[in-house]
Amino acid sequence: MKQDMSADTAGAEKSVKAAQSQKHQKNLYEPYPTPRIIWKLILRPLGWTIIFLTMHLRLRNRYNVPRRGPYIVAANHLSWTDVLLIPAAIPGNIFYMAKEEAFCGKLGWLIHFLGAFPVKRGEADRQAMRTADNLLKKNKVLVMFPEGTRSKTCTLAKGYAGLGMIALRSGVPVIPVAVWGSEHALKKFRAQVTICYGEPVVFKPKGAKVTREEIESATEEVMRRIAAMLPARYRGVYGEAVQVAEQNQVQQKQN
Known about the structure:
By secondary structure, the chain is an alpha/beta fold. The protein has eight helices and seven strands. It starts with a helix and ends with a helix.
């Protein structure tokens, strides 16, 4: 009898913990809307001060960045400092889609405070997709790192299809962004960091439903645009495709 009661108690405790964990997980999918005044008076000035004192930052093609949302910023990822550097030319509040593991550490609260929400990599995370859709419907700016994590080799890896899915479902512009040199940020004094903002591109499904081929095509198109802006040594798996495209352009000009 006592064993049965102990088992019931243990089961009840597990159910409560599971419910609490589930509730906490759901809350993470509601990104914290960092007050605009904090962005203007604290975060941006602090960020620019750190940038000015520790590195040499060059921003290219800032005119490609819209003044207002909704739009998606898709960038390669070399360092955690990218999270602070990429918004340098983006006005207003921004929201991040970040890997789920980032919320498990001691700085998880800070990541959430800065407007990030988690995504489960390697699977169709419907909650993350729903959050992204809702943010874009509210005319917000969404920053994504399609590779899913920082590149350990500093070369571009294959992008996850979630980017193409969100772009096609929302129909908002996607701004490809190429970052290089940030792997040395805060490691080398006055590191040379360059951020290049590409031309906006909009993807629309051909039919009533978004197809897998369209999702893969949209994702690859954005990744190739990012690769084309990067120096050759950073292009990774997209290096050959960009090289072929550049050769075709040269031939067309000659003809």
